[in-house]
Amino acid sequence: MAAPFAADVVGLVATDVTYGVVGDHGGHNRLIQQIPMVFAGPGVGAKDPNQEMRLVDVTPTVLDLMGIDYNPADFDGQAVKLPKPKG
Asked: Which pLDDT does position 69 carry in this prediction?
């Protein structure tokens, strides 16, 4: 909305009413903004944790999985604990 060619007026629709599809770049309600995220690889188990995560949580989560030290105060998000592989 900061672009010089952006609309002069923006209307927000009622909850659960949308003008896009899930995963699209439009809409303000939770249904449209909530996007599935999948992690796969060594150190990540196959069990679905079914927990919420924000985009700002991705980098701290990946750093944790990789065992890389970082200062949590440097990030807006926080690492999400993912299921470990059985073994």
From this structure: 96
